[in-house]
Each structure stands twice: as C-alpha cells, then as structure tokens.
Amino acid sequence: MQVSVQAEPFDLGALSNDFAARASGAGAIVTFCGLVRDNGGSLAAMEIEHYPGMTEKAIAAMVDQAITRWALVDALVVHRYGRLAGAEAIMMVATAARHRADAFAAAEFLMDYLKSRAPFWKKELSADAAEWVAATQADEAALKRW
Amino acid sequence: MIDVLYFAWVRERIGLPRERLETTAATVMDLIIELRARAEHYAWAFEDITSLRVALDQELSSFDAPLAGVREIAFFPPMTGG
C-alpha cells in the first residue's frame, strides 16, 4: 500500500509505471486521476484544505478495506492539498488485482470514499469570489452501493 | 483540556484554526451548546449542525458521542475530497 498526502505535484506516468513494476502477480491495473475542473472558464485556482493526521489515517483505512474486499495485489492513493491551478492533477488512485473487475470496483470504491470520507475541503477561487465546494446528495448516495 | 479544531468555512466563521478549551461538556452536543453561547460568530458557525460533521481523536463521530477521554475534537463541513 502507498498513501501520500502532499502539496507537491505528482508524475502520473512515473507513479503508474513504478506501481505496475511492483505489482507482481497482478493481471489488471486500473489508474484514475482527478483534475481541477474549470466549470465556467472563470476559475483562477482551487484551494484544498485538509486535516493533517486524520487524512492519512482515513485514507489508509479505506485502502486497507479495498485490499481485503477485492483481494488486491496492491493499491495506491496520492492526494494533493494547497493551491492548484485549473487542469492540474489533484489526486490519483491505482489498484492492482488478478482480474480487471476487481481492479475497477476497488478503484471506484476508493474514489467514492475519498470524495465523502477523506477530510479534504475544496474552495474555488475566481477573480472576484471564493466559494467552498458543497458536498452533494449524489456523493453521499454513492457510498450506499458499497 | 481539549483541543478543538475547525476546518473550511467553520474555521473562517470562528476566525481561528484551533484552540484549547476547558470544558465540562459531557457530549459533543453539550460542547456545541457551550460554544454557541461564547460569541455571535460561534453561534453562526454552529447554527445548523446538519451541515456539520465532527471527528473525535481523528475518527468521524456523532453529536451525541461522549467526550470523556477525548483529546482532540474537530468540526468541519461535509468533506469534498477526490
């Protein structure tokens, strides 16, 4: 398992390649990367706040759960905090399993849990406003399928 | 003594990220009632607890949870990771 909560940008390609090289016995690897989305073209930056200590623990617990439930060979989560510009990579998930169905399901599970149960808060900054991103009913409902 | 942490708009409304408090509150809700009474900006931060989440010693918890033995409590809005 690899969990990193960091301010620095990450190299999706290098991390994916390293992850694949370590995942001996896997037949499938799924990677997902989330980017800062500029909805109306007005976004100047995104500020991501987190709860140091709890963030790492909460993510490690969900990764542990995913590894057990889908018998993963390995799993990785990288999540950034601080100020990010439009189109920058916010986070990535990688899962390695013997078969693709497990790798896909585990990656979706981790994405749903990271969204609603990892202590991060996003604020969208534009030239003349700053607004906290609100959690949605759909985000919370997505947890119910697991 | 208990460390009280605030994040996101809760932190902005209260005006500080953390403070150390002396309290006799038995539960999270008791502490919220104490905090609301401190000043108007606390009352504003805690006006609608359905829009708040709470963690005790870095584990998500509930408003009726007891505070005995808890060293760190954090209040924040629903999380928006991913």
Describe the structure.
The complex is a heterodimer of chains A (146) and B (82). Chain A is an alpha+beta fold. Chain A has a single domain (2-145), classed as Molybdopterin biosynthesis MoaE subunit (Aldehyde Oxidoreductase, domain 3), CATH 3.90.1170. Chain A is built from 4 helices and 8 strands, in the order βαββαβββαββα. Chain A has helices at 12-22, 54-69, 100-117, 137-142; strands spanning 2-6, 28-35, 43-50, 74-80, 82-84, 89-97, 120-126, 130-132. Chain A has a 4-stranded mixed sheet, with helices on both faces. A 4-stranded antiparallel sheet of chain A has the order 5-3-7-8, with no helix packed on it. In chain A, strand 7 and strand 8 form a beta hairpin. In chain A, helix 2 runs antiparallel to helix 3 (100-117). Chain A is globular. By secondary structure, chain B is of the alpha+beta class. Helix content of chain B is 27%, strand content 24%. Chain B has 3 helices and 5 strands. A 5-stranded mixed sheet of chain B has the order 2-1-5-3-4. Chain A binds chain B through residues 34, 49, 51, 53-54, 57-58, 79, 90-91, 111, 114-123, 132-135, 139-140, and chain B through 5, 7-9, 11, 55, 58-60, 74, 76-82.
Write the layout of secondary structure elements.
The complex is a heterodimer of chains A (146) and B (82).
Chain A: E1 2-6, H1 12-22, E2 28-35, E3 43-50, H2 54-69, E4 74-80, E5 82-84, E6 89-97, H3 100-117, E7 120-126, E8 130-132, H4 137-142
Parallel strand pairs in A: 1-4
Antiparallel strand pairs in A: 2-6, 3-5, 3-7, 4-6, 7-8
Helix pairs in contact in A: 2-3
Chain B: E1 2-6, H1 8-14, E2 18-21, H2 28-36, H3 40-45, E3 53-56, E4 59-60, E5 72-76
Parallel strand pairs in B: 1-5
Antiparallel strand pairs in B: 1-2, 3-4, 3-5
Pathway (chain A): Cofactor biosynthesis; molybdopterin biosynthesis
Enzyme class (chain A): transferase
Keywords (chain A): Molybdenum cofactor biosynthesis
